[in-house]
């Protein structure tokens, strides 16, 4: 036992002097903080999903076409464009041209960053849904996409396709062309509609991603041989959008926090895995959004700059090895806008003119 108080004073003084050093070094020893899904947010989402399921109760394959027949002759199935953004929609003037004169055939829904005041004008004004913080490589992105799907299902029963778009995406064809690709028949049958989503198996990086939450954590709901991956950006048919918001079983696994954050990209695996397990014959194994992964950096694809933009690039980006051409492309830097707008104004045969070529519709290959 100390006989004087001086050692205690010395220890206290040393601790006070060490506090700044502790605050500086602490981030290097503690795991980084990540955006979490709170219980209240999860319950709010479940309430939203239940509303969407109830609102879509008349959307079965047997009754929905008759619902379309009962509508006015000008009512047609619509495409819901789901914008998942964390920055300004720099290409909004381009999208305005793309949507021009087709307002009865589409709807727009935006999930933004609630911590930022992102200006939304024109067709985007007033289209932001209830949004929550998101973070790349976390289940919060899955939540945001499910929230977009549910809101679109509730908002308009004529929404039949749901296209997820990023702020760095651009359309590669005119709206009429894309519409005829998705709706080759005037009144679609839900059980004949396919979802355009990339589904890949057995990539070399998949074992690390599968075990990102811990070894064997995903079983038994998601055995490794059923684990799939693919592009985050999809075009889902209505029945598959419902399937996504009705899911609880796989979501319980994919919402778990990751141990290895360097391999944690649940948004690139959840949708592909779910649809491959639930309806492999009802979806394609390719996406309609072209992405260039050559020279990718830290998980980000190649970004096209202003000097890259040309009619030749647009034609090149449209080409694919699947049944359909690519309809959208990413990733473009904001400075590309002026050149893209110039192309759309000077070469209407390239963008936004209603292409007159005959469209072919072929049954896609089944998911793997």
From TrEMBL:
Residue ranges crossing the lipid bilayer per the database entry: 6-26
Alphabetically ordered keywords of this record: Glycoprotein, Glycosyltransferase, Membrane, Transferase, Transmembrane, Transmembrane helix
GO annotations of cellular component type: membrane
InterPro entries per UniProt: BC10-like, Glyco_trans_14
Membrane-protein topology: Single-pass type II membrane protein
Organism domain of life: Eukaryota
Primary location class: membrane
GO molecular function: glycosyltransferase activity
Localization terms from the record: Membrane
Name assigned to this protein: Uncharacterized protein
Lineage: Eukaryota, Viridiplantae, Streptophyta, Embryophyta, Tracheophyta
């Amino acid at each position: 036992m100390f006989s004087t108080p001086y050692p205690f004073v010395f220890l206290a003084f040393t601790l006070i002097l060490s506090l700044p050093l502790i605050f500086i070094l602490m981030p290097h020893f503690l795991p980084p903080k990540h955006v979490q899904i709170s219980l209240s947010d999860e319950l709010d989402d479940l309430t939203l999903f239940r509303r969407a399921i109830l609102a879509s109760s008349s959307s079965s394959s047997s009754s929905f076409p008759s619902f379309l027949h009962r509508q006015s002759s000008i009512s047609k199935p619509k495409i819901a464009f789901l914008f998942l953004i964390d920055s300004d929609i720099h290409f909004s003037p381009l999208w305005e041209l793309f949507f021009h004169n087709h307002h009865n055939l589409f709807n727009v829904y935006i999930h933004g960053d609630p911590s930022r005041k992102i200006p939304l004008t024109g067709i985007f004004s007033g289209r932001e849904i209830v949004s929550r913080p998101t973070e790349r490589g976390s289940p919060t992105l899955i939540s945001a996409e499910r929230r977009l799907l549910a809101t679109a299902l509730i908002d308009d029963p004529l929404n039949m396709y749901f296209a997820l778009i990023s702020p760095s995406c651009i359309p590669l064809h005119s709206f009429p062309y894309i519409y005829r690709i998705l709706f080759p028949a005037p009144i679609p049958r839900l059980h004949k509609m396919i979802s355009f989503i990339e589904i890949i198996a057995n990539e070399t990086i998949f074992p690390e991603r599968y075990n990102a939450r811990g070894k064997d954590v995903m079983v038994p709901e998601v055995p490794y041989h059923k684990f799939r991956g693919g592009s985050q950006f999809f075009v889902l048919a209505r029945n598959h959008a419902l399937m996504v918001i009705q899911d609880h079983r796989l979501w319980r696994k994919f919402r778990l926090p990751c141990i290895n954050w360097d391999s944690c990209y649940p948004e690139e695996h959840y949708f592909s895995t779910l649809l491959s397990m639930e309806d492999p014959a009802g979806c394609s194994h390719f996406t309609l959004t072209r992405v260039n992964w050559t020279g990718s950096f830290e998980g980000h694809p190649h970004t096209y700059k202003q000097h890259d933009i040309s009619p030749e690039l647009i034609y090149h980006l449209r080409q694919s090895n699947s049944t359909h051409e690519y309809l959208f492309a990413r990733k473009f830097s904001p400075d590309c806008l002026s050149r893209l707008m110039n192309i759309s104004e000077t070469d209407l045969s390239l963008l936004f003119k209603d292409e007159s070529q005959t469209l072919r519709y072929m049954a896609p290959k089944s998911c793997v």
